[in-house]
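User: I'm writing a short report section on ligand binding and want a predicted complex to refer to. Could you take this sequence and zinc ion and write out the structure as tokens? A short remark afterwards would be nice.
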Amino acid sequence: MRFEGGCYCGAVRYAADGEPMLRAQCHCRECQYISGGAPNMFLLMPPNGFRYTMGTPKRFTRSDIERPVTREFCVECGTHLTTRRPGLDAIILKIGTLDDPSLYGAPQMAIFTIDKQAFHLIPEGLPAF
Ligand SMILES: [Zn+2]
Ligand SMILES: [Zn+2]
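Assistant: Sure. The structure tokens for the complex follow:
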């Protein structure tokens, strides 16, 4: 399966080949900054199938927390595209950047619900951690 997408302005484009390792939604406080306040909907994709096909994103890693993730975003329009987590051999791909976000289907789990806001929705019966 191939997922293609890019940022809001089109300066950065990517292609991700392979089967998604996970479809999920993250409720962590950090993701809320980047999602706009809702849970962050993402796919875990195998890293060897992922590549940027146009442009180079800027990377940001916090220095004030332990084991910070690295987030990649378009330097022109600011769209956050992917996250890389130390020790996790996968690309965390934000599904809002897919050319066709409907390819996401539905989440298989909700994570970091300890940071969940009262207005966040978790589908009935979805495993939550
Ligand atoms: Zn852009
Ligand atoms: Zn998160």
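A remark for your report: The chain has a mean pLDDT of 95. The first helix runs from residue 29 to 35.
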